[in-house]
Write a structure and sequence with these properties.
The protein is mainly alpha-helical. It is built from four helices and two strands; from the N terminus they run H-E-E-H-H-H. Strands 1-2 form a two-stranded antiparallel ribbon.
Length: about 140
Amino acid sequence: MKILSRALFLLFILIGVLIAVSNSQSVQLALWPLPHLLVVPVYVLVIVLLLLGVLAGLGMGWWAARHHRRRARDAGGEAARLERELSRLRTAEAARQASAAPGTGPLSGPSAPASRDQKAIERQSALVTPELGASAAPRGPFS
């Protein structure tokens, strides 16, 4: 990719030099509301107009992508927050299970209710990896 960009850069420089050499005559540029006339070579006018077009296109592309950048920034922050909460809950659950006597934890019996932290861990795990979630409901083709 670096070689391609350098080759294109050299091609544009070559085209610019060819335009400058073959169009060196001067033109008068009148700026309408002002009484002044600018006398510039044609190649300067062409290159300035091309640069203005490139800058206008870059600016419009940047402006059009602002919603996507904001959405990506918000989603990244939410993912980081969920990861911190998940690690905190896992640490708390591991500490709780380590301090509990064997055979008295929530996983010891089938009728023992899961703690609030355990439920939160399961919800977070289902959000992070939905294919590993506990739901056994059939999934449609678009879900």
